[in-house]
Specification:
By secondary structure, the chain is an alpha+beta fold. The protein is 30% helix and 24% strand. The protein has 7 helices and 18 strands. The longest helix is centred in the last third of the chain and has 30 residues.
Length: 311
């Protein structure tokens, strides 16, 4: 699934998007037909190229409306698919793979760590086959894909997921950002330190637009990534400052729980959003632990500063 959240913790303003939109001479966006709380207007999939052969980025969630819109658009463009490239394992990006194969069993499908796919309950599992056929080809870091009017370079950028890839479009100096950077709000991640490293990598890859996995086009791609990095740093600073204030005020030997930190940092945010916020705080705490700044008290779910001289 996708993971759209907002910096303030509330719902971002959602701008309606057409099902199919030409975004540039070489990029057409086709929505996945799966709008929702976490998927925003739906998963973005992209047709890339200008000639009779096109590349497809991501496959949506498996909604029938999506495969119909894809077929209709290709017919109107008098084009066919050369290959499909999957940015990461989440179901709302891989769910249409079966529809693509039912339509064209010879289609080449590429994915980093190709056996890493969603299981029945949304968690990743390692699968060698889909529907009895081995269909996914690996993507190497730096691998290039070419069609008329488009050269895509794949770059491994883990953090949102371990297999996450972004794709640089040379002709526009633009970046397909997958779910590492969204058109609305911010994204969640499996590992904060790894995610921040990937954001820094992404910021240096391009100077133009960002084509995200969810939401509208990002006009200033590197600028948006800079905002993401600043936001994560702000949250990290808030966690440290809150731990300092707690410790200076009450000096608890047992430390503080992530939810206790959330109730201070996210004051004014509806309590229904505190649980997902706590997940982000836990990620920050684990990053700080790796850096030797905090520790888990008594081996439980309570945290405290290591460097008390900073108070």
């Amino acid at each position: 699934m996708s993971s759209a959240t907002t910096a303030a913790g509330g719902k971002p303003p959602i701008t309606p998007l057409p099902e199919v939109t030409r975004l540039s001479p070489s990029v057409i966006r086709i929505l996945g037909g799966n709008p929702g709380k976490f998927t925003l207007q739906g998963t973005n999939t992209y047709l890339v190229g200008t000639g009779p052969a096109r590349l497809l980025i991501d496959s949506g969630a498996g909604e029938r409306s999506w495969i119909s819109a894809l077929q209709r658009t290709l017919s109107e463009e008098k084009a066919h698919l050369s290959a499909a490239i999957i940015t990461h394992w989440h179901h709302d990006h891989t769910g249409g793979i079966r529809d693509l194969l039912d339509w064209n069993s010879q289609l080449k499908l590429y994915k980093n760590q190709p056996t890493y796919l969603p299981g029945h309950h949304g968690s990743p599992v390692c699968l060698d086959q889909i529907g009895g056929a081995q269909v996914l080809l690996p993507i190497e870091d730096g691998q290039e894909f070419h069609v008329e009017g488009a050269t895509l370079k794949a770059v491994h950028t883990p953090g949102h997921t371990v297999d996450h890839m972004v794709l640089h479009l040379a002709e526009e100096d633009a970046l397909f950002t997958g779910d590492n950077v969204l058109g609305h709000g911010t994204a969640v991640y499996e590992d904060l330190g790894t995610y921040l490293d990937s954001l820094e990598c992404m910021r240096g890859l391009f100077k133009g637009k960002g084509y995200p996995g969810h939401g509208p086009v990002i006009e200033d791609g590197p600028g948006k990534i800079g905002e993401y990095i600043s936001h994560r740093k702000q949250r990290e600073d808030q966690v440290i400052e809150t731990l300092k204030a707690f410790t200076a005020k009450e000096d608890p030997g047992e430390g503080w729980t992530p939810m206790e930190l959330v109730k201070v940092i996210y004051q004014g945010v509806p309590e229904t959003l505190h649980i997902p916020a706590a997940g982000g705080v836990v990620q920050i705490l684990h990053k700080l632990r790796k850096e030797g700044k905090v520790t888990m008290a008594d081996g439980g779910d309570r945290w405290r500063l290591i460097d008390r001289s900073a108070l």
